[in-house]
Amino acid sequence: MKGSMRQRGNRSWELRVFLGTDPQSGKKRYRSLTFHGNKKQAEAELAKLIHQIETGHFLPPGKISVAEFLQKWREYIRTRVSARTFVRYNQLLEHWIIPEIGSHPLARLQPLHVQQLYSRALEGPRRDGRPGGLAPQSVVHIHRVLSEALRMAVRWGLAARNVCDAVEPPSAKKPEIQPLDEHQAALLLDAARGTRLYIPILLALACGLRRGEILALQWRDVDWTAGVLQIRRSVEQPAGKASVSIKEPKSPR
């Protein structure tokens, strides 16, 4: 598949991809879009456009709904996030984002549409049948997922801006963590002593490791000479799944 580009103005380019000849009319078919940026960025965007068309992931700007775009974005991120994160993204998309704003044309999505989505999520009713609305922290998660998706829509040339940048998500207070004191930690260790949970609990108390990090430890992660334990991987189990998978730790620290 061949593509070309020509400058139309200051930092404005027309990207054009040849799609072949229409077998019925004999006319040549092209896909074109306008890109704003420098020449190097335009060349990279053209290469990405060709790849999207070849793999069937290209959506013409102005002709797709928010729901159609989110379906393509969901396919894109499937292998780029952990299985557990993907399940959580799916829940927010299916339960809230797509039902509330999915019918809007992507190019006409406004900050008010998104703000109303957040208000309805806070007020309820919830879609799982529980009373009340979502907690502010859950609505913040909706904001993060939608903003991440729309940021990609801008990069793909499907939206002129990320409307989430003009929307105020609710403020969510982080719950205060109450760690065990020395006496409580000693009681916990005494209760676990002699069971298979003693070593995992000891590691959690002494090193502050996450459960998935403890479960993923292997003997080669232990340097007996230096007295060092290295955290190289983590285990996760998506909700509702029987299988577990190995992933990288949450952060380099």
Short description:
By secondary structure, the chain is an alpha+beta fold. It is 42% helix and 14% strand.
Please specify the SSE layout and strand pairing.
Elements: E1 3-9, E2 12-21, E3 28-36, H1 39-55, H2 66-77, H3 83-101, H4 111-123, H5 136-155, H6 182-192, H7 198-207, H8 211-215, E4 222-223, E5 228-229, E6 234-236, E7 245-247
Antiparallel strand pairs: 1-2, 2-3, 4-5, 6-7
Helix pairs in contact: 2-3, 3-4, 3-5, 6-7
Query: Distance N terminus to C terminus?
Result: 44 Å
How would you state the average pLDDT, rounded? 88
> How is the biggest beta sheet arranged?
3 strands, antiparallel
Taken in chain order, the helices and strands follow as EEEHHHHHHHHEEEE
Rounded radius of gyration (Å): 25 Å
Name the descriptors.
alpha+beta; 253 residues; 7 strands; elongated; 8 helices; single chain
Task: Write up what this structure looks like.
By secondary structure, the chain is α+β, with helices and mostly antiparallel strands. Helix content is 42%, strand content 14%. It is built from eight helices and seven strands; from the N terminus they run βββααααααααββββ. It is elongated, with a radius of gyration of 25 Å. A hairpin with a 6-residue loop joins β2 and β3 (28-36).
